[in-house]
Design a protein that fits this description.
Number of strands: 0
Shape: elongated
Number of helices: 3
Strand content: under 5%
Helix content: 25-40%
Order of helices and strands: HHH
Largest sheet: none
Structural class: mainly alpha
Distance between the termini: 69 Å
Length: 71
């Protein structure tokens, strides 16, 4: 038949030990212009990934954040 030739897709970078939370973090960095500051200040509160945007469980993030003391 007359089918269109398929484009060859670039290889996908698959990590050795994939983590769903790290994948969410990577997605959020790409969505937020690649900066941690944009991810932290993300205004998309209704996004189902929002609570996981730091790459850890929300409770873990809050515990880590409370341990850090301001300079």
């Amino acid at each position: 038949g007359d089918s269109m030739p398929r484009k060859k897709l670039p290889p996908v970078d698959i990590p050795k030990n994939p983590s769903p939370l790290k994948a969410i973090r990577k997605h959020c960095l790409e969505c937020g212009d690649g900066t941690s500051k944009m991810v932290e200040e993300c205004p998309l509160r209704k996004c189902p990934l929002h609570p996981y945007r730091f790459g850890v469980m929300p409770a873990t993030y809050l515990a880590q954040k409370s341990k850090k003391k301001p300079l």
